[in-house]
Amino acid sequence: MIGSPRTPRPGRDRRARRLRATPGRARAQSATAPRAAVVGGGIAGLTAATALAERGVRVTLYERDTRLGGRLAGWPTRLTDGTTVTMSRGFHAFFRQYYNLRALLRRTDPTLSRLTALPDYPLRHSAGREDSFRKVPRTPPLSALGFVALSESFGVRDLARIRPRAALPLLDVRVPEIYDRLDHTSAHDFLEAVRFPAAARHLAFEVFSRSFFADPRHLSAAEMALMFHIYFLGSAEGLLFDVPTEPFPQALWDPLAHRLDGLGAQVRTGEPVDEVHVSDQGGFTVTAAGTGTTGTTGTTGTTGTTGTTRSTYDAVVLALDPSGLRALVARSGSLGDAAWRDRAARLRTAPPFLVSRLWLDRPVRADRPGFLGTSGYGPLDNVSVLSAWEGEAARWAARTGGSVLELHAYALPAKSEHRQIQDELLGALHRVYPETAAARVLDARHEWRADCPLFPVGGYLDRPAVRTPTDGLVVAGDTVRTGLPVALMERAATSGFLAANTLLARWGLKGHDLWTVPSRGRSAALRWAAERAG
């Protein structure tokens, strides 16, 4: 449902779409409040736990790691100079279109003062081309026209070579219809069919596709088209974004954990869930193994020794990455039906990626952007100057006269030789920012991970939806099919709210309003043309 003109909007886009919550009681009675387990403490799990606890549900959140945040977690590490700093799995952009994620963060930061805007999002190719979004208008179709007018890699002549009929699906992206049209085509093949210019493809579309940690040849074109809609032609929020002013734990998750505690929820970190069993009497038994203690609030029927708990709940939210969900479903034979379990077993993980964080003995040039997307520099996909915007890094740089940089490499071969890739990233940095070649690396941390979802060609129907065949069991995460135009962190947050809303409606409790970018193309004429072409 579209919000009325009097409805406060979450951003500048007047066409943002509001999905009204299911009505119900404002809060459960404490004596009869339902019990819910949330498995996974990333964005999706924290969102679901918060949304449920705000309605009086007795929530226990299980996280296998010792820290919250999932792929945005952070942890302390001690540098050789004795400084304790926070390491993480790398840079994330908080776009203005992330209405539901930002709504979650507003629970503890109403004005989003713990986020700060980066003034630009430049993209640079090794051949010398560079594009910027700083001066591109934010409102479609001026955004597309402005990009063409200002771009070094996409000119008017390139626009004339594009096959209009092949490109029309980009102009009317709807969910889930876009998956019916393009899920069985790779992003690479779709751009070939459109005759999208190679230079612009490297700088724009491949940067987007690799933000999914996937090679364009292995990424569904539907997912890429959805990204194009969310960030470019479907939304008036633009392509600029915010970043946290401090590391993820301090800026985001510690305050949210404190709020959950105040709402009566229990957060159990360091406790991986071994099994979820559907009870014959209804409800679920969750078996967890970790270093936590037994007999905690929010659960009943707790048995076992310290470090192993079996607790009963009325509902369960599975908010796990693909490998975690796949493994837990395999261990929990009573969940879902055979078809659902088979689909879970087919979930795939994206190729490995590397985050290298470097503490240098000198600053980079003052005009270097806080974030730079790159193409043509070997495995290097982007460079962040953390000390330009993150408080902890800035304080270290001010004290030492150095700088803190972060390098990302996505979609790496499964058998990559780690030291070789790390050295290649450093060499690429020297090409991108030549002043760093003379710098001494005082300290470095390298995070190799391979746990992000892959959105392969033809894989849409294997992805779980929020609802499952088991009543009271719901799924959340950035892998989930939501039926809404959301992606990446926003899909995680949105699915967490959807999972909570599904359970709240079951108990007669009021849900939470959601917002998305427009659910279809903005031009009626282009929508008509796209329908005719389809």
Describe what you observe in this structure.
By secondary structure, this protein is of the alpha+beta class. It has three domains: 19-70 and 249-348 and 463-516, FAD/NAD(P)-binding domain; 131-239; 351-449, Alpha-Beta Complex (Polyamine Oxidase, Chain A, domain 2). The chain is built from 16 helices and 23 strands. It has helices spanning 43-53, 99-105, 142-150, 156-161, 164-167, 177-182, 187-194, 198-210, 221-233, 248-262, 322-331, 338-345, 391-400, 418-432, 488-506, 524-533; strands spanning 17-19, 35-39, 58-63, 74-78, 84-88, 94-95, 115-117, 123-125, 130-131, 241-244, 266-269, 273-278, 284-289, 300-303, 308-313, 315-318, 353-360, 371-375, 382-385, 403-409, 441-449, 473-475, 514-516. Helix 1 packs parallel to helix 15 (488-506) and helix 2 (99-105) crosses helix 15. The longest helix is centred in the last third of the chain and has 19 residues, at 488-506. The two termini are 26 Å apart. The relative contact order is 0.20.
Give the tags.
534 residues; alpha+beta; FAD/NAD(P)-binding domain; Polyamine Oxidase, Chain A, domain 2; 5-stranded parallel sheet; 16 helices; 23 strands; 20% strand; globular
In total, the number of strands is: 23
Strand order of the largest sheet: 9-8-18-19-20-17-21
Task: State the share of residues found in helices, binned by percent.
Answer: 25-40%
Q: Would you state the CATH class of the largest domain?
A: Alpha Beta
Instruction: Classify the fold: give the CATH topology of the largest domain.
Output: FAD/NAD(P)-binding domain
Name the CATH architecture of the largest domain: 3-Layer(bba) Sandwich
Number of domains: 3
Number of helices: 16
Mean pLDDT: 90
Rg from alpha-carbon coordinates? 23 Å
